[in-house]
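Blinded run. Sample ID left blank on purpose so nobody reads anything into the name before looking at the predicted structure. Input follows.
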Amino acid sequence: MHLIRSILFAIALAVVTVPYVVFPTLFFWLPPMTRHRLITSWVPIMMWVIRHVLGIRYRVLGRENIPAGPAVVLSKHQSAWETIALQVIFPPLCYVLKRELLRVPFFGWALAMIPGIAIDRSAGKDALAQVVEQGRERLKEGLWVVVFPEGTRVAPGTTRRYKPGGAILARRAGVPVVPVAHNAGEFWQRNAFIKRPGEIIVSIGPAIDTKGAKAGDVSERAEAWIEAEMHRLFPHHYGNAEVAASPAGTPEEDAGGAERKSAQDV
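Blinded prediction complete.
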């Protein structure tokens, strides 16, 4: 049954995505935010498909922690699911992505039509400067910025070194950091064709004020909250590991020196 669901999802993904990959290249003359609204209308369609074809639901804890204005979201990264779902959970947002993706025929061209943060990861220290410069512009435009501080997708129950690039951007832009924990990897594993039905829990932590704080301290606070929340909500992934519990949210249904870093810290 999981295989059949996954095959149907792959077919639906192709059918729905192709028009959104081809037609946006005709909209280059529209204002950036208008292009963003048009292209990201793909997201609620795919979330419906994910729920009704794959059987993957989600629940949000701590929705009341979402600030009124733009912020930098530091999220756990386990699958492709959160790159889609965060767009319906939070206000309009963008991601940090590799510049070479924009060169992919059709897909990359469409991606370039959406305001985002495209960086050259081979640029060393300049890559972080690109994130800060472009990220501040996106935040001024009213977009939120999502950064995956571990830099890549990690399996449930594991972690990688948190990089401070997102915290540096938030501090420079004068906006808060919002930490996010979730267990999407339980049902949608990295590079796995077969997805499993179930309920993903997304927990949004209290916003972290960056004013007057060091970027390194902000990053450490976000990491501490995310990892503690992961242990609290999903202890079966961590065995008998004990971590201080973080505050619980309210469930809702579906609805300085640290700044001198290289590209590896973005």
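Unblinding after everyone has recorded impressions. Residues 2-265 form a domain with the Glycerol-3-phosphate (1)-acyltransferase fold (CATH 3.40.1130).
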